[in-house]
Amino acid sequence: MNTFGNKMGNWRIVVFVIVLIALPVVFRNPYLTSVLVIIGLYGIVAMGLGLLLGFTGQISISQAAFYGIGAYTSAILTVTYGVSPWVAIIAGCVISAIVALVIGWPTLKLEENYLALATLGFGFIVYISFMQMVELTGGPSGIRHIPPLSLGFMTFDTDVKYYYLVWVVALGLLYFSSKLVKSRVGRALRAIRSSEIAAKSVGINPTKFKVQVFMLSAVFASIAGSLYAHYVSFISPSPFYVTASINFVIIAVIGGLTNIWGGLVGAAVITGLGELVREVVPLFIPDAGSEYELILFGVILVVTMIFMPQGLSVGVKDGWMKWAGRSKRIKNIKEGEMNNENTVA
Fold first, then answer.
1. Quick one: CA torsion of 294, 213, 226, 64, rounded to 10 degrees?
2. pTM of the model
3. Residue 345 to residues 25, 146, 333, 341, 342: CA-CA distances in angstroms?
4. Please, which residues have CB within 8 angstroms of residue 52's CB and are 6 or more apart in sequence?
5. Within 13 A of 69's CA, how many CA atoms are on the CB side?
6. What is the full DSSP assignment across 292-325?
7. Which parts of 57-113 fold into alpha helices (H)?
8. What is the pLDDT of residues 238-253, one digit of tens each?
């Protein structure tokens, strides 16, 4: 039975990869391709956040800050100092991990939601730093002419090329996350989520594991931020405001915190609906602002929490399994009735 389930899971992954490869070829639309790139980037951030929220129960409202640290590290090192973009991405990851360690180690020892408050304050500090450190970050004007990424003879200077790069990274991190949650570390994290007292009784150090996962989620966000910077070639502080962190939390929760696919599912739903709202609402309400988008996200979040508390990735899967099981039972009943009729005849 497990072997059959594994085979079905493998086939789903193969189909998913084939669809990803085919999308830019079938739909040769630059706008759609750019949206898919953003979905991949947001999915990476939400994937790391899902590991933190879903497997340790800790709320972080600073993912936009780490997203920005990755972006600005890449921008500053490549534009100002001429460093290789790949080295800049690694530097952003290291800086984000160190900052996460400094923030997480003292706050994760506390009870309740002190991490959420600390990360919220950290998010404001980072945003203000981006605005005020004009000589380094360019202030509100930002940094321009960020060079594109290149690998050997290939330069990722088109939407389609960057689409494949982002999704290769996203799938690689998804594979890493799947191995992590199935490993000894993953079992320790699930034990911590269930009961820290019980985890301590079997020799697990909850603070150590929570800090490590917090650092990992920061690295995920930093990678996405660096990729974003090299994709748009220009950054300013506005995409890294605290509201972006709240959106990342919404994406992770809606997608599903205990499923590694949740980040990608949530990113696809929220980003797709956000683009749809921005296109459709102005047709009916010309003076509409971003508040309608926030209202929609709030409604989706409430509905998801009521009817699919484990997120869309788990809720849709469970609904499909129930429907398939019901259809199979109905088919078996009908076949049984036909066999009985034939026997009587």
1. 30
2. 0.86
3. 57, 80, 18, 6, 5
4. 58, 60, 213, 214, 216, 217
5. 27
6. HHHHHHHHHHHHHHHH-TT-HHHHHHHHHHHHHH
7. 63-75, 85-107
8. 999 998 998 999 899 8
